[in-house]
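In response to reviewer comment 3 from the previous cycle, which asked for concrete evidence that the modeling workflow produces usable outputs, we include below a single protein chain processed end to end. The sequence was submitted unchanged, and the resulting structure tokens are shown without manual editing.
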Amino acid sequence: MLSVFSAPSHYVQGKHATAALGTEMQRIGLQGPACIVAGKSAIRLLSEVWQKHLNNAGITHVVHQFGGECSYPEIERIKETARANKAQVIIGAGGGKVLDAARAAADDLDLPVVNCPSIASSDAPCSALSVIYTPEGVFQEYRFYRKNPDLVVVDTSVVAQAPARLLVAGMGDALATWFEAKTCVAGHVQNMRGGASTRSAEKLAELCYNILVEDGPDAKRAVERHVVNPALERLVEANTLLSGLGFESSGLAAAHAIHNGLTAAPLTHPYYHGEKVAYGLISQLVLEGQPRSVIDPVLEFSSAVGLPITLAEIGLNEFPQDMLEQVAARATAEGETIHNEPFDVQPDMVADAILAADSMGRAWQDAHTTE
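The workflow returned the following structure tokens.
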């Protein structure tokens, strides 16, 4: 099996980076008209910046307001807007689902894609895949592309304006990266691009984890004050670039599969991708039989930044047996990344791990609430 490492063609990050969007597009030969797929917050914060700086670069654009879910009906709507305006490039601006939908539309239309995350809530911006959901928000499939985004522009001054919970959700997504990468590397399984992991990908995943532990709490405090500091810059790089490179070029395992299973429970739908991945990670560590010396630092970090460590914290105060079985069945569906674990995983094992993780999380909370 050949080793494969994938990355975006061009990555730009910093305070007020949106002002350089037109210049950076010109640098790599991208021209308008552009179709900007954007969430409501991105439109509110960035419309004037797009108007000024894209116009200065001679790039005309139209804005398509994202419908709320990365589903095939929404992708078709984006394509209609792009065709009607003869777009030559698709720009995604917003959260992970916005970027995933923009990427899918660009692939269908054989157009270059630029990702401009307005939040650092997931590692979606740099990857060559989209997570497709049904219009109701249930995980449907991973969709893979021939290449990674042509350009990623991360404006940390915009990220700092978003609710801190979104940044924390990104930490949850990134927190799983190193643990899933280690599982995949040890098992010599294919990464998300169909090849073996490289040493660089595994080390980037480890660096991602180290930055989270070192800078996560300070970065959260910066966003709570809507300011940009060095800790936030490092943390955004971890959430966005390092986690993206680490997961795509090393692989995913049980944590993301359990997230996908949890989407089958409607009560989890108000919770973010990274929040459910964080709970999935604890379940993965239980499933793998990891010692407390591995699990406790994850519980400590999660508690420190506000990631969920119990089922109640992802909406499942009540978890009927039939729903638990649906979640476990979905997590172990054919082709799921849970099968990258180095042993045969059955639904009953996942159900037990999910409940055991909850008991562990509640015990941790009980032991630390009086400290």
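The first strand starts at residue 11 and ends at 14. We consider this sufficient to address the reviewer's concern, and the full set will be provided in the supplementary archive.
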